Amino acid sequence: MTGTRPRHLKLRKAVIAAARQLEPLGINRGTSGNVSVRAGDGLLITPTGISYDALTPAQIVWMDSDGRYDGDWLPSSEWRFHCDILRERPDLNAIVHTHAVHATALACHGRGIPAFHYMVAAAGGRNIRCAPYATFGTAELSANALRALKDRRACLLANHGLIACGYTLNAALALAVEVETLAAMYLKALEIGEPVELDDAEMQRILGKFATYGQNPASARR
Questions:
Q1: How far apart are CA 124 and CA 222, in angstroms?
Q2: Each residue of 131-185: pLDDT tens digit?
Q3: pTM
Q4: Residue 65 in contact with residue 88, Cβ under 8 Å?
Q5: pLDDT digit string, tens, across residues 168-178
Q6: Is the pLDDT of residue 221 over 80?
Q7: Is 88 a catalytic residue?
Q8: What beta strand segments (E) does the chain contain?
Q9: Reading across the β-sheet that carries 42-45, which strands appear in turn?
Q10: Hey, what domains does the chain have and what are their CATH numbers?
């Protein structure tokens, strides 16, 4: 803090705005999710157990890459994988973690999302993996998540929820919504039977097209 004005005030407000979108977007309930963004040589993360509607900028917790934090509020119980992902993945700047219903339903069966639809490539690869279960907040969970996120921007966490990452907070939010939408579609398709999967060659073509998808080639970084 500098006087009464917290450092990275604009980013703190952006984290609060993102956290407050989780429920209206239909990807979380209550305070079960968490949001972080890279800030200087550390990160800003939502605190544990505080309603997003009640958050103030000063309550957003600054942490360094080793998990040390400033201020009077405890960081999210999932701070560890936020720190580890942002340390290991310089291509990512923001993380959204939620307990979205359909993605979590798949994760409770240990299932990821295969290439049943081309939009799976939005997460950066030919599938969206499900990380093995580990107790929340542990180094084991963080390690599992990092492996599931190799060459990806999103993964599911077994018996837990989802992680979506992006170059910006808006990109991470959008990807979290996309993963939840894909999970809902996949579950619906499974009611008929295992859906047809796109082959590796087609998914590679899709990944190539996504590199310049949108109005600006920089969207490839999302």
A1: 9
A2: 999 999 999 999 999 999 999 999 999 999 999 999 999 999 999 999 999 999 9
A3: 0.93
A4: no
A5: 999 999 999 99
A6: no
A7: no
A8: 34-39, 42-45, 61-64, 94-98, 130-131, 154-157, 161-166
A9: 61-64, 42-45, 34-39, 94-98, 161-166, 154-157, 130-131
A10: 9-221 (3.40.225.10)
And the tokens for 114? 């295969």
Q: For residue 48, which of 68, 27, 16, 78 has the smallest C-alpha distance?
A: 78
Q: Count Cβ atoms below 10 Å from residue 187 Cβ, excluding itself.
A: 17
Two tokens, residue 110: 């240990």
Nearest alpha-carbon partner for 92 in 46, 26, 149, 145? 149
The 8-class DSSP code of residue 5 comes to: B
Residue 126 φ/ψ, nearest 5 degrees? -85, -5
User: CB–CB of 51/33 below 8 Å?
Assistant: no
Q: Which residues pair with 98 in a beta bridge?
A: 162
Q: What are phi and psi of 38, to 5 degrees?
A: -65, 135
What is the β-pairing status of strands 130-131 and 154-157? parallel
Catalytic residue selected from 23, 78, 88, 197: 78
